[in-house]
Amino acid sequence: MVSQTLTFAGTEVGRLGLGTNRLTSTPENHAFLRQAVEAGIGLVDTAHVYSGGDSERAIGEALPPAPDGLVVATKGGYTGSGSPDALRAQIEQSLESLRTDTIDLYYLHRVDPETPLEKSLGAIAEYRETGKVKAIGVSAVDVEQIETARKFVPIAAVQNHYNVAERTSEDVVDYCEENGIVFVPYYPLKGDVPPTLGEIAESHDASPEQIALAWLLRRSRVMLPIPGTLSIEHVRENLGALEIELTDDEFDALA
After folding, report:
1. What pLDDT is attached to residue 1?
2. Which of 219, 225, 250, 255 gets the most CB atoms within 10 Å of its CB?
3. How does DSSP classify residue 67?
4. Which residue ranges in the chain fall short of pLDDT 70?
5. Cβ atoms 140, 112 nearer than 8 A
6. 128-162 as b/e, with b when 16 or more CB fall inside 10 Å?
7. 225 in any annotated domain
């Protein structure tokens, strides 16, 4: 039986999240966010750059304060902006936009080649030490970069591109499982999938997207996918993947 929850940034959450890179601050989207959380979403994932900052603002307006059983994660330091001063400014903006005193999980969005990793993480760690950030993550990284990051701060989560069709981060998934780090695959439903996936979906009376998510959930006990959508119907369909048990043969057919 695949576990339906995991402990993440100190909170037990459902193992399916919501990506919000297209989210804007409208009454309709505020209602959507509240419905998604009520439906069982365990993680709302955003970033300083998403929708020009509107994604964070929408979350702050819709979910003050975040209910129990929900982690809200954001990111800073996108390409070329990983200097300590830039990160401090982005964290302050995120705290304001999210209308919170504490960010549950803060990722370094990209490793900045112009800034030593320890300096970028050091700026985030300052906020962890003052209680304004609970946990720290890194994104778009390889195993060596994770190991380097862990020399300076505890890493609670890694977010990389990974799904049935995109397997570049296989070693990162395995490393995260071995070390108890939550792995958050972004674009968990993007890309070409094998024809076998459709056949498996039919046998479960499920959608191909549900099978793709079910495969991810079984792939590793530390996996927490964040499919992006602005539709509550899609959210509920995605959550249905938590109920699907793939057989060994079905899992292997997609491996």
Report:
1. 74
2. 225
3. P
4. none
5. no
6. beeebbbbbbbbbbbeebbebbeebbebbbbbbeb
7. yes
Examine residue 159 and state whether it is found in any structural domain, yes or no. yes
Question: For the chain, how many structural domains are there in total?
Answer: 1
- Backbone φ and ψ of 195, nearest 5°: -55, -30
pLDDT at 228: 97
Question: What is the extent of the structural domain holding 144?
Answer: 5-189+220-229
CA atoms in the 13 A half-sphere facing the CB of 31: 4
Instruction: Give the amino acid at 239.
Output: L
Q: What does 108-147 look like in DSSP terms, one character per residue? A: E-S--TTS-HHHHHHHHHHHHHTTSEEEEEEES--HHHHH
Beta-strand relationship, 103-108 and 17-19: unpaired
Quick one: tokens of 36?
């998604």
pLDDT at residue 9, rounded to an integer: 86
Q: d(Cα 159, Cα 106) in Å, to the nearest integer?
A: 11
Q: Give the CATH number for residue 133.
A: 3.20.20.100
- Residue numbers annotated as active site: 50
Q: Is residue 90 part of a domain?
A: yes
